[in-house]
Design goal:
mainly alpha; 2 strands; two-stranded parallel ribbon
């Protein structure tokens, strides 16, 4: 088994549980939401935003819900 295939297999084993545990974490983090809202105000519609290391995409979804164009890469 090559390294990239092994890494993918390991990720696939934990991805669902990871997502379940953090999917709603921003609901409990008003400071993080405030920082993300400031980011939205600053970036506006200046172009595409990259969420690198996006994991389950919960931060990307939060930004997208506020009109930010983005791409996520984990």
């Amino acid at each position: 088994m090559n390294t990239s295939h092994n890494l993918q297999a390991i990720y696939n084993r934990v991805a669902a549980e990871y997502t379940r545990r953090i999917a709603d974490e921003l609901q409990h983090k008003p400071f993080d939401r405030a920082i993300l809202d400031c980011f939205v105000d600053h970036v506006g519609d200046h172009g595409l935003v990259a969420d690198l290391g996006c994991g389950s995409g919960h931060v990307a979804a939060y930004l997208a819900d506020r009109g930010i164009q983005l791409v996520g890469c984990d």
